[in-house]
Design goal:
The protein has about 220 residues and is an alpha/beta fold. Helices cover about 50% and strands about 15% of the residues. Bound molecules: cytidine-5'-monophosphate (C5P).
Length: about 220
């Protein structure tokens, strides 16, 4: 991979369970890029809301977001909120159920997007989420849209949660994913949608390694 002058920016969007986080993390390792998990930032803001009991007091939450400090460590593996490691808290069912309602607030998105662009200015990056190819980095060097059937995405999430001993059922995970898809795709500001020039990859039936290789090959062939 040759990148002379400007930094390389790779953006990936897709719904929950499409495999984008795992894939982006591995591509980052292979190509030596900074990994940006944008969903983790909206999740951290949700933890901030819960901690301060302002889940429904949006003006107060906006104020807190403007002064909070969100930081990644270990190339995106850990996330700190005001210096506290909240990497575990951001994955709880409570946060899963609340995050899409917090992430739809335009003022909150504005602050988070500003932060994401700043991270993008600091080095070559692979960033994933819901609006990275459309809003945050519309001029990214490479854009991908990952998708998979709802059933497959629910199965993956369920398997992941089982390894973490989270007490849940496949049916409730599927219902949670459907509800989040609906909220993320139908919201007024920055809804989840594929950028016109994004490369679509249906990950149904594909292994993580196959998807990683596909992305690395696309980058290699056009770069
Ligand atoms: O990617 P992840 O599932 O962790 O994202 C959690 C939630 O954060 C999404 O369901 C969505 O509501 C919000 N999100 C967003 N924009 C992004 C990334 C995530 O609105 N770029």
């Amino acid at each position: 991979m040759k990148q002379i002058g400007n930094y390389l920016t790779i953006a990936i969007d897709g719904p929950a369970g499409s495999g984008k986080s795992t894939v982006a993390r591995l591509v980052a390792e292979k190509l030596g890029l900074l990994y940006l998990d944008s969903g983790a930032m909206y999740r951290a803001v949700t933890v901030l809301a819960i901690q301060n009991e302002v889940e429904t007091n949006i003006p107060k939450l906006i104020e807190l977001v403007k002064t909070c400090h969100i930081e990644f460590k270990d190339n995106g593996k850990k996330i700190l909120l005001n210096s506290d490691d909240v990497s575990v808290q951001i994955r709880t069912p409570e946060v899963n159920n609340l995050v899409a309602d917090i992430a739809k607030v335009p003022e909150i998105r504005h602050e988070i997007v500003r932060h994401q662009r700043k991270i993008g200015e600091e080095g070559s990056i692979i960033a994933e989420g819901r609006d990275l190819t459309t809003i945050v980095f519309p001029c990214a060097d490479f854009k991908f849209y990952l998708d998979a059937s709802v059933k497959e995405r629910a199965k993956r999430r369920f398997a992941e949660l089982q390894t973490q001993n989270v007490d849940t059922t496949l049916e409730s995970v599927e219902a949670e994913i459907r509800a989040r898809d609906e909220k993320d795709m139908s919201r007024e500001h920055s809804p989840l949608q594929a950028a016109k020039d994004a490369i679509h990859i249906d990950t149904t039936g594909k292994t993580i390694d196959e998807v990683v290789d596909l992305i690395v090959a696309k980058i290699g062939s056009r770069h």
